[in-house]
C-alpha cells in the first residue's frame, strides 16, 4: 500500500524527486486545455474534516488536471456530523473502490491510523492536527527552489527562519523535516510558549531557537510566517494579541534592517497585522501567491506518484 503521511517518512531523494515531478507538472496548468490523462479511471476522495480553502481546492484541481474523478466530502455534509467515526466513514468510502483518499483531520495521527487499518486505498495527508502537512512543505520547497534558481542558488545552503505559532503548526513540523533532509539552517522564532519542546533535539543541530524576532530573522534568505492558530490556543499562550504583534509581527521596516534580501512565505490563511504586515504580504519580497500556484503542481506530483503506486509508506 502506498501513502503520503509525512515528510518524516521520506528520503532526500523522495523529496527532490517529488519536486522535480512537480516542476514538470507546472506547465500543464499553463496550457489552454489543462489536462493530462495520467490518472484517467482513478477515483480520488477529498475528505476534509477540518476547514480548508487552499488545500482542498488545490487537491481537487490537481486531481481533475490528472483526469481522475474527484469527489469532495466535508464534515458538515457527511455522517461524521452524526457521530460516525472516521474509520467507519473511510471503511464505507473504501467499499466504493476509490484509489486515493486525501484526508484533513483535526487529530494528529488520523491519516496514519487510516493507512494502518485500511487495505485497499491510498491515504494522502492533507494536514493532521499539529502533526504534519506534507504537501504544504513540498510546495514551500518548490516555491523556494524556483525563486533561488533564478539567482543561480540551489535549495540547500539556505537560512530559513520560521516565525510565529510553531507549537500548533503542522506546516512548521513538515518544513522542519524537509529542511533537515536538505541540510538547511533553520531558526525557530517564537515566544517560549509557542516553541515545541525539544525542537532542536528532534530536528537536529541545524535548528536554533530564539525568542527575539530581529535576532532570529537576521541574515535569513527565507522568512516563513505562521498564523497565530487562535482556534487551537485558547487564551493561554500569549499575554495579549497586541503584545504578540508588537514583538513578533514581520514588518517591512524590520526586514529592511536585518534581512534585506529575504523572501517571505505564509501558508495562509493570514492574520494581516498580527503575524505579518500588509506591506510585507503585498510587497515585492512576498512569494505567497507563488506558493498557492505551486500547490497545484505539487499535489499533481503527489497524486500521480501515489496513484501509480510509487510512494512508499
Ligand atoms: C495551514 C493549515 O491548515 O495547516 N493552512 C494551509 O493548509 N494552507 C496553516 C494554518 O491553518 O494556519
Report the uncertain regions. none
CATH superfamily of the largest domain: Aspartate/ornithine carbamoyltransferase
**N- and C-termini, Cα separation:** 7 Å
Structural class call reads: alpha/beta
Account of the 3D structure:
47% of the residues are buried. This protein is of the alpha/beta class and 313 residues long. β1, α2 (54-65) and β2 (69-74) form a beta-alpha-beta unit. The longest helix has 20 residues, at 288-307. It contains 13 helices and nine strands. It is globular and about 55 Å long. The protein folds into two domains: 7-133 and 294-307, Rossmann fold; 134-291, 3-Layer(aba) Sandwich (Rossmann fold), CATH 3.40.50. A five-stranded parallel beta sheet has the order 7-6-5-8-9. It has a four-stranded parallel beta sheet with strand order 2-1-3-4, with helices on both faces. α2 crosses α13 (288-307). It has helices at residues 12-26, 54-65, 86-94, 110-117, 134-149, 170-182, 199-203, 213-217, 230-233, 241-248, 252-258, 278-281, 288-307, and strands at 43-48, 69-74, 100-105, 122-128, 159-163, 185-189, 207-210, 222-225, 263-265. The chain starts with 11 loop residues before the first helix and ends in a 6-residue tail after the last helix. Bound molecules: N-carbamoyl-L-aspartate. N-carbamoyl-L-aspartate binds next to α2 and α6.
